[in-house]
Amino acid sequence: HKAIRRQRQMCKETDIKEHLNCNLSLRTIADSVFLSESYLSKLFKQEMNLNLMQYINQCRVWEAEKLLASSRESIDVISRRLGYHHTSYFCRIFKQYTGETPHAYRKKYKL
């Protein structure tokens, strides 16, 4: 889809991707760009057609897919590396976005 490609490109081009391991929230991002949370949220939703946290999770899942397919790091290490404090929450988000668990995804690559 054109929209998904655009979102992936935005993910590559933004500071968000460089800070996936940080505590990213609407408040911290709004503060860093000197906008109110509500205004940033509205602008982001208009431009991307999804909310900011959905976008952050989507970027984190795309990065997790790369790491799961190319490294032998544990799922726990990958989840923490991408800013998730709880591996179970990471696994739930990963499955929500991909339809499979991180373990099942990695198994396809035999790592």
Helix/strand-derived category reads: mainly alpha
Mean pLDDT: 83
Low-confidence stretches: none
Q: Which strand-content bin applies to the residues?
A: under 5%
Structure description:
This protein is mostly helical and about 110 residues long. It contains 8 helices and no strands. The relative contact order is 0.12.
Which terms summarize this structure?
mainly alpha; 8 helices; 71% helix; 111 residues
In short:
This protein is 71% helix and 0% strand. The chain is mostly helical and 111 residues long.
Topology of this protein?
Elements: H1 2-13, H2 15-18, H3 26-32, H4 37-48, H5 52-70, H6 75-81, H7 87-98, H8 102-107
Helix pairs in contact: 5-7
